[in-house]
Structures are given as structure tokens and as C-alpha cells.
Amino acid sequence: MENKLIASSSPHIRSDETISRIMLDVIIALLPATLASIYFFRFNALKLIVLSVLSAVITEAIFQKARKKPVTINDLSAVVTGLLLAFNIPSSAPWWIPVIGSAFAIAIVKQFFGGLGHNFMNPALAARAMLLASWPTIMTEWVTPGADAVSTATPLAILKGQAEGILPSLTDMLMGNMGGSLGETSAILLIIGGIYLLYRGVINWRIPFTYIGTVAVIMLAFGGGIQNTMYHLLSGGLMLGAFFMATDYASSPVTKKGQIIFGIGAGLLTSVIRLKGGYPEGVSYSILLMNVAAPLIDKYTGPKVFGEVKQNA
Question: pLDDT tens digits for 155-175?
């Protein structure tokens, strides 16, 4: 018999992409912003990044060893979580802040729910929310870039009237020469990293574009004009959240419509918190709230199964 029919279970089409390859792409995309944070915030940035990444990797290894599970630190997902958490910490934070945060992100948010792909919210963002609730003074103590770090306020806090100071120029904000968390200051490098992920097919346009677009439209309408809108887009964690955290595979919708709803919802919540809330930022909590809503969004935006009939009451 010349033509053989081979029967096998699905999936029948396999991708060459692996978890480690995807995570490596994310690390490459974050590398420019990582180097910029070290340039602007010097040794403190390097120390916090190294501690955060090492704590995440070690926690994952210990947890999996303790449960007699295969140790999967080679997939680099713990490195990405540690790096993203470090990006959400101010450079003035003490050494134990990233250690506790990474341990919480990996052990509580990721491993307790089954490990990679089973976490219902972004581990790094959940850890940031925990750190912010536990040590609010430390997590909101910003300093100016450079060796002579001086306490300063973020542009969003100045815009909101919660702090006094002079707003940096839009050029400085684009490059990252301003106070803020380690990895959220340089908008242009985060955008370049996001474009790399889009080019590599690691993420698609739906969540980041609808997220940033929604914030832009609402701020233009209610945020005080074009200049204030640019400050809202370029400062805070919007670019970092839109490209690198809201697009987390495990905690965002899988349907196309769902991803658009997710992006619009995150943008709406971020805008409401920034304009009407007591907190000048809002990206972290917006994404976390939409993470919780993701299963419901998927339920109502999923395609109909071929041949499915409506059940009678």
C-alpha cells in the first residue's frame, strides 16, 4: 500500500515556538529599558533588578523541589516575572522589597494556582499591589535620576495636584529622565520593546493599542487637553502595562473580541482612577481587575461551536 493514512489525536499542527523562546523574546524586548534604568538610577537599579530576578528563580526552584515537581526555571518565565516586578519598584526601595515581592509573585500567585499558564492574574502586578498595600511609603518614594538622588514627585502626582514640582519636558519623559519606578520611565524604549514583540508575533495589537487608545481618547476629552494627554501617555506605567503585562497569556482573554474588550476596559479603569480616584496612577489595579474579569469576557465572546443547538429551558 503506497498511500498510508496516519491517524493521531489533536493537535495536528505544531508550532516551533517554545515557552523559553517566547520568554527570551520578552527579555530581549525589556533589555533596552533595563539598561536605561541602570543608566538613570545607577547601582540601586542594578541591585534591585538582580535581587528581584534571583529571588523569583530561587523561589520557583524551591517550591517545585518541595512539591517533587520538575524544576522548570529553564523556561525563563520566573526571570520575566522578576524583571517585571523590578520595573515596578522605585530605585530608593530597600533590598528586601524585591525579595519579598518576587517570593509572593512566584509562590502565591503563580505556583499555588498550578504554575505557568494557570495564574489568574499577572504575578508581578499582584506582587506590586501587595507591596503597595503593605509598604505604601516605600513604594511611593521617588527620586531623581543620577548619582545624587533627590526626592521628587512623579509627573502624574504633579498633574493631579497631590505634589508640588515642575513637570519635566516631554523629551525627558520620552527618554526616561524623570522620577518613577525603575522600568516605567523610558516610554520610547518600552515602545521599541513592544514593537519587537509585535514583530516577533509574541503579542498582537489588540490589547496594547485599544488600551493606550482608550486612555488617549478619554484624556483628550476630560484630561485637560493635548499636553496633559501626552503626560498621561508617557508617564506612569501605561506603556509597560499595555505592552508587557496586560498581554500576559494566562490572565488575559484568548478571543479576539475579548482582547479588545479587555484593552478598552483597562484603559477606561486607568483613566477613571487617574481622573477621579485618590491614586495618581492606576495601571496596576486596572489590569488586575480586568484579569479577574477575563474568564467572564471569554465566556461571552467565544465563537459558537459548529452544530451547537440552543438548549430548551
Answer: 888 887 777 778 888 888 888
